[in-house]
Structures
1.
Amino acid sequence: LFGRLERQAPDALLAIIGLHRADPRPGKIDVGVGVYRDATGATPVMRAVKAAEARLLATQDTKSYLGPEGDQRFTDLLAPIALGGALAADGRITGVQTPGGTGALRLAAELIAVADAERAVWIGTPTWPNHAPIFRAAGLTVRTQAYYDAAQSRVDFDAFLAGLTQARAGDVVLLHGCCHNPTGTGFAHHEWAVLAKEIARRGLIPLVDLAYQGLGQGLEEDAAGMHVVLNGVPEAMVAYSCDKNFALYRERVGALWVQADRPAMALPVRENMLVLARSLWSMPPDHGAAIVRTILEEPALTSDWRDELTQMCGRIRSLRAILGAAHPALAPIARQDGLFALLPIGRETVAALRAEHGIYMPDSGRINIAGLNDETVARFVAALLPHLKG
Ligand code: LMR
């Protein structure tokens, strides 16, 4: 059996972690994988997370099973933050805990496949390299449409809308809720409104990947576009990750919400999600969700979490301002949101920066802005400038 298997390259993005770690040069810079780092280069456990963990340690009296829905109170408390109060209370929407945002996307993919395996999933390019494999693994067809105009460093909205004209009614459209990965460039407010109308008019189903809420412009602002879409369409899905905004990466905590076209359909949708979750992971891991629940149950912890998240967001924005001011070709970075920006450089330059300066990023030229600090940003810019045009 196993003799039939072919070799597989390691995930190119995750491989950067090991490559950077193995580099002995003291001045090396990691702007690879998307994790928030503070000014010292650490990815700390957030204060509210530490406090919640201390409480859990003192009070948790069982590790017995929950169920395929995970910690339902976690999902219910997170819903108003992700969906807003009105949608969180909407009887058409049902949600379950998942192992991270990837688990949420995979559960969404399986749900689509069970409902109708002929539906294609449309993905704007470029995107997170794991998006297409997740949908393909569920047996779905992935189609792509242009999203980004790299020459102008802006969303190519006309091309994106033109791409939607190729989709059949009932197909799924993947949207990044905020902090687009890898470009940092999202839809403008008026574009979200046009998009919502167009998606509804064509009978398409939006699947919003919301993995960086609070790291762009703020918790409310980062979900505002998605709310416009959810309010404008009958059916939708939201795949949510707490990896970045609660800094819970390895705990694997996320959620999937599905909006049915009428309240009576929410229960069958939910039952199918639970059956699928049972065969995928039986039950999601508890600890991360218990932490988020504990934070959101306690106003003082919630407020401390929000404050620290706002500080993290501010640090990213100030680094963006420094990069944007360094060279005209980098100016768009100051206007973008979230952890990522796509540098206007090719693979050769990426390789040269790695070989000559110990600067690590994927071949796409995507950088994790939070991988820089006040000291390294100057060295980073000095290494990059000779490779920029204009
Ligand atoms: C990234 O894009 O760097 C992050 O989302 C981490 C990952 O899982 O790829």
2.
Amino acid sequence: MVSVLTTQPLDRPLDYLAPEGGVADGAFVMVPLGPRQVLGVVWGRGLGGFDLKKARRIHAVLPVPPMREEMRDFLTRAGDYTLTSMPAMLRLATRAPGLTNPPSMQKVYRLGEGEPDRMTDARSRVLAVLEEFGGLAFTLKELSDAAGVTSSVIKGLVKQGAVFEENTPRDLPFPRLDPALPGKTLSEAQQAASDTLREGINSGRYGTTLLRGITGSGKTEVYLEAVAACLARGRQAMVLLPEIALSAEFLSRVEKRFGARPAEWHSGVTMTERRRTWKMVAEGGAQLVVGARSALFLPYRDLGLIVVDEEHDSSYKQEDGVLYNARDMAVLRASLAGAQVVLASATPSLESWVNAQAGKYRRLDLKSRFGSAALPEMRAIDMRAEDMPKGRWISPRLQSEVMKRVENGEQALLFLNRRGYAPVTLCRACGDQIECPQCDARMVEHRFLKRLMCHQCGESMPIPETCPKCEAEGTLSAVGPGVERLTEEATELFPEARIATLSSDLFASARALKQAVETIATGGADIIVGTQLVAKGHNFPLLTLVGVIDADLGLHGSDMRAAEKTFQLMRQVAGRAGRAEKPGEALMQTFQPEHPVIRAILSGDEEEFWNAEAESRAQAGMPPFGRMAGIILSSERAEEAFEAGTMLARHDGPIRQAGAVVYGPAPAPIARIRGWHRVRMLVKAPKGVALQRAVSDWIGGVRLPKTLRLSVDIDPQSF
Ligand code: ADP
Ligand code: ZN
């Protein structure tokens, strides 16, 4: 009798009879559940205690390597940490379509021992391809394409034994990466950092390193050395990137460094390729995976290194379904695997900075920029002193600086972190703002797309000609700037310049975005108008000026992380300028140049900023000095959500006993999404409190209506 964890929403694993010949722990199996066959994993020996005659038998054992104990441990611990059910955790680990299909076979071709009876041009091309790629196997199509011959030429060579044909499973290993190929000659600072990382890898034990250095300081080059060290030891490595759009540049860098492309794992990868990747990761036929956060749940055979690039990036926090932070899960996973973690960033998260200060993480700093380029000079434009015409957002001073760059054949970036044309659309007759019918959010005009869009639920509608409220005609007007409006202004101010707008709405696919980025990088635009999409890692060698339209934008609002986020974003954006030979400059339009965060950004004194920020969080007992959980209660009826919150607040015994406090219920930051009313509660606990236990005891002890949805977010991003 074995217990099998399935992906079905049951509260515990079920007992099944093992098939003839037994079954290993961790084996992937199909088991009967009601009338269906479902996917499961043998989780351990059975618990027994029920009628053996009624027990059902495992239907099939799937021909994939069993889930290793380390992975089962990881899922259990990650589930405990995030208060996620085990079936939901298992679903994360089995996101490979076709996993349950039998392996299909295909014919592949490699170099044989025999000699062809006579050599033709076509034949010698085939043999040359096979020789060049050593032991690599090709499918018939790949080989005929590579050699430029028809398949009959290859078949002829097979008959004579010069080419060897064999049947193999369809999912082929990835081409070998060669860690022994030489990398770039490292600077002294890079070499020192790389040596330290290598030492960590060679210890074969867990350790986390925060690799800091401004954009362009050569961090990527350094962690590629860690990847090389890991591969050289025969272990697998994974590099997590925050944006799929960035992976193209990175993949070609890997190819240059190691002679072949790594496996990829993100939403843009085809189904077939996913299945292949999942299997090859399990079997060791993939040495390096480059991917999004979900790559953490792949079944590595022997994981030796996880790199989290741009570790502060908020996209590492999954905000749907299982709420986890990939950075923290990477550390957990690595600690179970005896692997090293490298957290790379120009502007680390406060969490990582504090962990490094406390000695929990090693810290490596790459101080200077690689090569000759200098850090951009950062200055404020005091908007109180600028003479701003109505309806304009580019100050005269910024305008003349942009003009200089354009005339010099350089590029300028105008940064505004607001999608769409204008944040508010207002009726001049009745004063009404157009809101989303389903959310507590304004509809945002996207003039380039000729629609109004809700940024919460994605609802969109054509821009109405009359006010939906008072039906006045032609009275709707845009209030405030978005990137599209900024593009319009730039077009008027710089009629001769070529202007490119980079905002996620304007690109239907990652590929379209990639193309736009390439066009810009190779000089296809003079002025870039962009949202935070441009802050992330793109390389624009001609860019010498960054103009931040509204540096104060992120400072308002009640979020405790506002300062941290603004600081990171501004530095990331400024870091786009001056990456090649030409020095860069960043100008920040602000109405409050004396604000401490703005001052810290301008002075460039990171340590001072982090110290001040850490101090204020510590005083408030806020993360990372205290622990938090966010609870969202949502219901189609507002009263129901509030009543449930009030009930929970009244029965907070387990929370108080643990020494923690409940705040709320209060309307969630977005109080209605897709018609669901949302109420938020926050639990705040001193460090060292078993927060998850207290929260689950608390929630488990209150009977809530079935029509209510509850989600728990441990370590919420905003609080
Ligand atoms: P970061 O990851 O910190 O932004 P990168 O590693 O991408 O920095 O380096 C910035 C640029 O400098 C890249 O174009 C990279 O190829 C180049 N570079 C970095 N280190 C070296 C080196 N040791 N030799 C030559 N070029 C380098
Ligand atoms: Zn909406």
